Amino acid sequence: VVGHMKLVNGQSIHEAPVLDEVEIAKARRVLIHVQSHDGPVMKLYLWDQAAREFCKKFKSYEGTPTVLLVTTVNTKTLGGTLALTSMSSSRVFMDYDVQPTIDYFSWLGSNPDIAEQVNAEVVTKRETMTIGEIFSYIEQESAKCTATIDDVVHGSSWYYIACSGCHSKVSKGPTSLLCTNKKCGKVNVSGVPQYLSKISVYDNSDQAVFVLLGDAGRELTGKPASELVRSYFEANGNEGVNLEAPIPEALISTIGQKHKFCVKVTEHNLSGKTRSLTVTKILSLDTPPATASSEDNHTTATSEETSQNRVDSADGSKGACCSSELERAKRRKCGN
DNA sequence: AACATGACCGTGTTGCAGCG
DNA sequence: CGCTGCAACACGGTCATGTT
């Protein structure tokens, strides 16, 4: 494998990494983030003999070497990303050692943009973080993206009946509704409809299915699911209250709208099969497209704040203006 | 000899059951 | 109800074997 080094034991190659040979001897290995041409950045583990050889050569250079060639490496997939490990017979070459490294070095010289490219993955997948960084990373657990809704997924219900206490799903008992959340265990006289809607969205490059849950659904339509369900059955003279309400106009009319979605990636999303992401929050865009909701006043709705307030006025039943921290904490408590 | 591939083994983690 | 121990599983790391 030949490529240019990005990080050596977590230190950027541009900052002339200092190798502690004692430390490396103790750890028995060196970790190098290496990129071959414009391919993905790979983790390259050099063990024992190869690590020692690497150290020796790395230090022997006047300046910091950038090109690395390692023979006979094992390929491994570590946490989904490609990783390489050295073997007993692995040999290490750099910059002007052999013809292939010389060739690569000159190629790199004529493609300086690739050499300087900062790959997000290298930065985010660091081995060590400070406690503060971990906290801030946790804070950022939800990613934001802007996408356009192109459909509401049919074939599955757009809401579920939740416990009035904790918003977990309720199961139908003989005479009442039982909360499935063991820690809650509340017996409900009547459940509260909550959003669980799948919407199909797209942006410039991809298409995906987002799952809207309670609060996010209300943020999108401006109305709580309970109100939409109630008004449907009221309009139909309470006929078939035990049946399911169809997808309401308020939800259908969001098709074509463009929003900034905060999505949360959970282990469920990462397990592969389901390519759906859970939406935790919906932010208004600066220039929201025309919406079908009549009472909406979007002229000043540029910030999260105003969007929240608008929702509250429509809802009224719940003081949802509490900090997102508190919301998250509550949800976590309930979920477990 | 150097290389490529994959099998195997040990360790860490997680889920479940049983017991206090 | 909570804790502990066990088992299953996944993953990382090493080693063996076949090929060039």
From TrEMBL:
It comes from the Eukaryota. Residues 290-311 have a biased composition (Polar residues). GO terms for molecular function: DNA binding; zinc ion binding. Residues 287-322 are annotated as: Disordered. Residues 145-286 form the Replication factor A C-terminal domain. The keyword Metal-binding applies. InterPro entries: Euk_RPA1_DBD_C, NA-bd_OB-fold, Rep_factor-A_C. Transmembrane segments: none annotated. Keywords: DNA-binding, Metal-binding, Zinc, Zinc-finger. PANTHER family: REPLICATION FACTOR A 1, RFA1, REPLICATION PROTEIN A 70 KDA DNA-BINDING SUBUNIT B-RELATED. Belongs to the replication factor A protein 1 family. This is BnaAnng39610D protein. It comes from Brassica napus (Rape).
